[in-house]
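Example record used in the benchmark description.
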Amino acid sequence: MTLTQLSYIVAVERYRHFATAAEKSFVTQPTLSMQIHKLEEDLGVKLFDRSKSPVVPTAIGKQIVAQAKIILRDAKRIEDLANLSDDELRGTFRIGVIPTVAPYLVPMFLRRFMQKYPLVELVFEELLTKEIISGLSEDRIDVGILATPVEMKQIYIEDLFTEPFVGYLSESHPLNGKSKLTLDDLNRTNIWLLNEGHCFRDQTVRICKEVDESPKASIRFESGNLETLKKLVEQNFGMTLLPWLAIQNIGNTGSGASIVEFEEPVPSRKIRLAYSRKYLKKNLVQALLGEIKTAIPKSLLMPEKKIVIE
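Model output (structure tokens):
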């Protein structure tokens, strides 16, 4: 029995598909299948019912996979403890980031972090909030960067910064030309939204409900990508709300689209760093926290005159 074999059965249990598990484990399907078959032979039990689609673990398979997760987690902690003994930061650091933060925040600190900590391997993955929480709970990622509070005893939270919302309006939009938006403005217009599952979508809807429990605005079209919503506005279709970091690289598109900030108090979201192991890799957590706070504008570290939308 090897740790590699245990990682393969955990992957199959998670994805319920041998090909997908192999892809996520960065091996070929025959290799993964052969190793799982060898483990089953050594244990004298069948771990998965292959006659069903998707694949499901057998009764004994469920118990063995559960124990495998514990063993793999403890093995990672041994590696973490070894790395803690060195004065120089090293090791693999797995970071889950929500999609409305990743493309805007990560480039701001990545180069500096890599230059400062060359022995650290950063592994980023764009995940929805619920996937980050699941990844932290199951020890598949080390930290998560998200925009909603997490109330779970095994997860610890560090505040990073408070990010304002801004309006992005098409050239012909009736609010284009205003010096500042108000919450009342959102009750009289259509707003493009992200798909279900994105916390930024939920926060946008909550902003509208701050105005009226029965808002008059109709909310239409859903996308999984903020860049798609920006392109719609630039093609002279409606408006959307964007997080402040998402507008920093918007140049002159020639579309007539406008960025309009909100009057105070400004609706905002709080970006947080979440991690599940309080002591292991704490040095890396603090290093990441420090580099992010160094990279972002100081104005985002000041929560005054902002309303945090949770």
